[in-house]
Amino acid sequence: MAEEQDFQADVVSVSERMAAEALIVDVDGFEGPLDLLLTLSRTQKVDLRTISVLELAEQYLGFIEKARHLRIELAADYLVMAAWLAFLKSRLLLPPEPGEEGPSGEELAAHLAFQLERLQAMRDGAAKLMARDQLGRDFFARGIPEDVTRVRRVTYTATLLDLMQGYARIRTKDEFRPFVMDRESLYTMEQALDRMRGLIGFAGDWTELTSYVPEGWETDPAKRRSATAAHFAASLELAKAGAIEIRQGDTFAPIQIRRKPDE
Amino acid sequence: MNDVEQDQEESLFEAPPMGEQERMVEAVLFASAEPVTVSELQSRMPHGSDAAEALVYLRKRYEGRGVSVVKVGDAWAIRTAPDLGYLMQKETVETRKLSRAAIETLAIISYHQPVTRAEIEEIRGVSVSRGTVDQLIEMEWIRFGRRRMTPGRPVTFVVTQGFLDHFGLESARDLPGLKELRSAGLLESRPPPGLMPGPDSDEEEESTEGQSELFED
Amino acid sequence: MNDVEQDQEESLFEAPPMGEQERMVEAVLFASAEPVTVSELQSRMPHGSDAAEALVYLRKRYEGRGVSVVKVGDAWAIRTAPDLGYLMQKETVETRKLSRAAIETLAIISYHQPVTRAEIEEIRGVSVSRGTVDQLIEMEWIRFGRRRMTPGRPVTFVVTQGFLDHFGLESARDLPGLKELRSAGLLESRPPPGLMPGPDSDEEEESTEGQSELFED
User: Fold this and answer.
1) What is the ipTM of this complex?
2) Residue among C35, C103, C135 whose CB faces A163 most closely
3) Which end of chain C is more exposed for a tag (fewer CB within 10 A), N or C?
């Protein structure tokens, strides 16, 4: 009751009382305690620089009490601010105790006044900013912009080394074979097998194996060795496959082969 | 091929006449809806051109005309004269209505930049919702600035070229009432004398130099 | 704002001066997203204005400028001056390595010129795509030589001065021979021992022969 009376004492005129009630109704519309303080400060009708922080603190505390009385739920930060303002009020009213730590009541009050003034300044700034001529409303950009077309030009390049390597690659491609394949003086068993398969059909009688060695391979010793060995291996293959018969009369005697007679 | 090379070589020594350079700047600025930086102009003009000088001439030429050459940060654009806005109802773009919180946040960023979120909250006395910042970023009116070299290295916010363009500002220095605010000490970031309630009292220590970094010249 | 309203009211009785009308036409043409007809201009301008006359003045004012007022159908628009169209293109040059096929084709032409396409294909062992030859011609590294006096009279290809310039050669004869390539370690495979009576040696003869045909003029 007493607290309510305090609040009533603060509210002087009917219009201010109505404003205060409007504040309560709008309590959710405030953006926090600082916003509320700034609004309350307007009732002082003075420059924010000469505002009475003590009076403002009392207004705020009265407001909070009133809201509590009307069972309006207040967010925690409103109550934190109320507690802090009550503290500030006591600091401002009572002389500081000797040896007390922390900032003085005046310093705290000055900073609160600064905060309020700064917030107001930012609101004024925001209003001035929004009142400026704006693009798309008051002044306009080009309606038909001619976009920059990005042309991507690709240039190709090569070095002399690329060129020479390229040429070397082509000119050596034909020559390039794995080393093992390089057998100018070798007669492979596969070659001999191919050759003998073609010839064996005509050999009904025993024929010396050496006579199968192709022309041009009999004279050069290296070639003859290679061809003979290949043909011998091939004849063993053919005998194993049952295509021919093979015989040797004596050690180091000539090897003879013939087609296997049809059964 | 050879001719082109020759031309380019010659142009290293001889730039087109200033009248021609002015035409080029005029054409490029007219063609673009966005402001064009001097270096972009320069790169599109022949070697040896002086875009900055051509701009001086061009700007003078359009004084008092229906469109004018305006500076937007370090870029240039052609915009219609604001007094003729009433003719352009058809072109008017409906901008998204900004909340009071968004407008205030924008104002705080523009006057205090580079500014951290904690500093914005300290000024407004309430926490800044993520949506508000996101909206302003999405509108390309604010962007992240350098991180503050304080504990936690918080990000800062600064306004963009798009912001300057939208509000017809040559630079953030031309914000209305900036000088008065500064001389009244309202752009200083004063640390609260302890024991002050704040939305994020633990982050308050970050408030340091504030806008001075940007506006001091 | 009040001034503007006043202007509009006055204009019911008195048309704005022609200079003002010109400004209006200028601003509207600039900001409009589409070309604007005279009647559309007229309807946007204050009563008593003469859009057609203002257009005549505006058009004259832009003569020889970087942009011009042009008629599009029965409407008007501001457009970049045709001679400055190149400023609206931003060229980015990208350098790429020539493809292997192109390098090999170029190498064959340079070593064997004048050479027909069939000969190139025979040497490479694969067909030569039209695109490869076209690319080399476009790069101005090869060109058509004299036709071969053989059945079908096929065209031949030779390298250009641009090719020699690019590769720093005085003539195609300066290209290193196969022996030099080999001693420089550029050949990828050793010829088998013996048995290689140097396809290189006769090829070399062939190539110098070919070149002499070209260079003896």
Assistant:
1) 0.63
2) C103
3) C
